[in-house]
Amino acid sequence: MSVKIVIGTQWGDEGKGKIVDLLSETADVVARYQGGANAGHTVEIGDRRFILHLLPAGILRPNTVCVIGNGVVVDPAALLHEIDMVRKEGIEIEGRLKISHNAHLIMPYHKKLDSLRERGANKIGTTGRGIGPAYIDKAQRVGIRIVDLLNRDYLEQRIRMNLTEKNQILARIYRSEELDVESIITEYQEFDRLIDPYVTDTSLFINTAISEGKRILLEGAQGTLLDLDHGTYPYVTSSNPISGGACVGLGIPPTCIDEIVGVSKAYFTRVGEGPFPTEETGGIGEELREHGDEFGATTGRPRRCGWFDAFAMRYSTLINGCTSLALTKLDVLGAFDTIPVCIGYKLEGRLLKSFPTAARILEQVEPVYQTHPGWKSDISQITRWEDLPVEARQYVRTISEMVQVPVSLLSVGPKRRQTIIVPEE
Ligand code: GDP
Ligand code: IMO
Ligand code: MG
Fold it and tell me: Burial of 266 by CB count in 10 Å (0-12 exposed, 13-18 middle, 19+ buried)?
């Protein structure tokens, strides 16, 4: 039995797509458990670059079965578009994709409400994919699920019911145009035969695969600091990207989890609003953005950049129970003479004992840095640990010690071959 979870330890975009693709070489099943098309997971294979939003990154390996679990919110149009995109690249999907009958649907009114709510002063900087409003409906118990697509009459009834309320909200609260119920019913009724081949009880499928000794990889989206419960609320997403979310989002027991791989960038980034104590807003931030090509894979927005925050990372590895780390984008730091790492926060002159998640507090903390010597060279073609400059190895070992989790994989570029296995100390 082997069940491995890959999670983001920061504010997303840590390079999960690359790491999941690497690890899925030896996986039988790869499953997504939360989020939706707000995710943008990049995988580079040779000259080809794929950005996956809903399909698990394992889809690019010919022999894996991919699962979209009950915890994911699915935009059927986005999903079908993505299936088309990978098919055009010669990737066979038939028999390899399973979607949970219990997964909730993103509806046109979710996307509209998402963008309208972002117009005010309290905006979160969402991806505009309708994620928050879809999870609200799920918790409100008025959501429409994948299984409902397979019953046209029931689907029509639910859409009519929901739109009666949503259109009032759109018109009265947001003074926006109402949505046309008939066209939404027609559009969603058409999805039944297109989605039907993939719909199944994915919890039963994965539990059976586990009992047969299959190798399972669970692909988190977003990151720990964007977690609805444990992130920097309210500047978070509306699901639970942490490792604990995998069991809920797939219907598997915590006792089956063997390994938890935390993916971390060698520095920090964030897209959208919210506190970011180690952010560099001047020239250094721009340099990091330029060298790291830090632009959102889903929205194209420039990512905010800053130094590695070991204090936030320790919090993150603790609540995820990371058994190892995959440290990505180490190559990007080759441009700097010295590399500061944040080792703690001060608030009103006092060192904090634990990571504060409240945005109000995080906005006021002052990071305390330890400075490391840079290696000032291009390491992107190095494939062996012992060939790395000593300063780079030291940087990795220091992070590992601070965070109290071994770094087992290093990534020095977006391609599969730009990966280094770190020997145990
Ligand atoms: P994800 O959402 O966690 O899958 O990450 P994204 O795909 O949104 O962003 C990571 C970006 O960094 C992508 O463009 C990757 O191709 C790229 N990338 C991944 N690992 C490395 C690395 O080690 N070095 C460099 N320079 N780029 C990387
Ligand atoms: P991957 O899986 C980075 C951010 C948004 C916004 C907040 C809420 O590629 O790492 P949402 O649309 O989820 O309601 O937006 O979360 N966000 C991400 N940031 N990577 C992601 O996914 C993200 N998904 C959402 O920018 O700040
Ligand atoms: Mg991303």
Answer: buried
- Nearest atom in ligand 1 to the alpha carbon of residue 14 is 3
**Res. 1: pLDDT tops 70:** no
Query: Ligand 2, closest atom to CA 35?
Result: 13
Q: What span, in angstroms and rounded, lies between the C-alpha atoms of 185 and 223?
A: 34
Residues 412 and 279 in one domain: yes
Q: Are residues 384 and 269 in the same domain?
A: yes
Instruction: Mark out the alpha helices in 124-281 (DSSP H runs).
Output: 131-140, 152-168, 181-195, 202-211, 243-250
Q: How far is the CA of 215 from the centre of ligand 3 (A)?
A: 25
Average pLDDT of the residues in 237-242: 98
Whether residue 390 sits in one domain with residue 277? yes
Which ranges in 58-180 belong to alpha helices (H)? Answer: 76-88, 108-117, 131-140, 152-168
Residue 316: the pLDDT is 98
pTM above 0.85, yes or no: yes
- pLDDT at residue 343 tops 60: yes
C-alpha 387 to ligand 3 mean position (Å) = 30
Which ligand is in closest contact with the Cα of 221?
2
Beta-sheet pairing, 350-351 with 338-347: antiparallel
Domain boundary, last residue among 194, 211, 226:
194
Residues with CB under 5 A from ligand 3 (ion): 13, 40, 297
Convert the pLDDT of each residue in 260-303 to its tens digit.
999 999 999 999 999 999 999 999 999 999 999 999 888 889 99
Residue 41 bears catalytic tag:
yes
Phi/psi for 105 (5° steps) reads -95, 145
Tens of pLDDT, residues 350-371: 999 999 989 999 999 999 999 9
User: Which residue type sits at 119?
Assistant: R
Q: Would you say 359 and 347 are in contact if contact means Cβ atoms under 8 Å apart?
A: no
Calculate mean pLDDT across residues 40-45. 97
Name the closest ligand to CA 269.
Answer: 2
Regarding whether 75 and 30 lie in a shared domain, the answer is yes
Residue 313 tokens read as 């990372």
pLDDT tens-place string over residues 397-419: 999 999 999 999 999 999 999 99
The DSSP letter of residue 302 is B
What region, left, alpha or beta, does residue 402 occupy, with left being phi > 0 and alpha being psi -120 to 50 degrees? Answer: alpha
